[in-house]
Amino acid sequence: MKKERTLKELFSLKDLFSLKGKNVVIFGGAGKMSQSFARALLFAECKNLILVDLSKDKLEEAADNLSREFEDQGLHVHVCDVLKKDQLEETTLFIKDRVQKVDVLIYAVMSKPKEYYAPLPDYPQNTWNEALDGNLSGAFYVTQSLLPLFNPSASIIFVGSTYGIVAPDFRIYENMDSNIYGGKYPLTLPAVYSASKAGLTGLAKYLAVYLAEKDIRANVLVPGGVYDDQEENFYKEYTSRVPLKRMAAWTDYNGAVVFLASDSSRYMTGQLLVVDGGWSVW
Q: Which CATH homologous superfamily contains domain 14-115+134-167+194-274?
């Protein structure tokens, strides 16, 4: 019988968006966006959720918050530097020991090394290399390491950015005097961010073809800017260039990540799902 005829028909919301019985791993799991993802994925009834990050304190805080709300689901945290092979190998063993197989991998690592916001003419080479490694190379290393654990029909989701598909509009940064994220440089958009996020698209497309025979999908979620208490000048400049006239809330991407993780997107691979309020339309 042809494969198409053996697939479960998807009609109800439960069939489309439920993650019941699924094991999900989020790298960069202590970040604000990942925490929002985590709640949405747990509400979609994933069986196990493993959060992996560099920060032990933030992981434990996230686990405490989530475990109070989702008592009956498996929630695990693990500290890992994805650029250190021994740590990644140990993390893979940890995942295998806890859940055996992986159904959804989300890579949401955001590397901001020292002098990350330096101007282009003075941008340090080691800062470029470190940011590129964390944002892009790590996605390859993690996928490579977890390959033996992927279930058939697994979903790989890379978190990209609108600045990986369009150039930044530097006018929104012109009147910035400070940086809410710290450091001596005003808030701006480094070239390494654009380069690394664009690279995730190429990697996802490669994986989509390479893993297609195993029915493993790879896609990129492309979010726009999120309101994070940025200074008023930045907010006004940014929202003036968004058709919907606002920045995103953290939860505005939850529907998209559940869609990409669930069977509702089972015929989608190698694609970009852009959720940016219309920013990239212009």
A: NAD(P)-binding Rossmann-like Domain (3.40.50.720)
Say how far apart CA 165 and CA 271 lie, in whole Å: 12
Containing H/E element for 159?
strand 150-159
Cβ contact 64:38 at 8 Å:
no
Can you tell me whether residue 272 is helix, strand or coil? strand
Q: Which of 13, 64, 32 is nearest to 252 (CA)?
A: 32
CA dist list (Å): 56 to 11, 65, 98, 198: 41, 14, 18, 29
Q: How far apart are CA 186 and CA 110, in angstroms?
A: 19
pLDDT digits (tens, 9 = 90+) for 57-93: 999 999 999 998 898 789 999 999 999 999 999 999 9
Q: What distance in Å separates the CA atoms of residue 82 and residue 85, rounded to the nearest whole number?
A: 7
* Statement: residue 148 has pLDDT above 80: yes
Work out the pLDDT band at 243, boundaries 50, 70, 90: very high
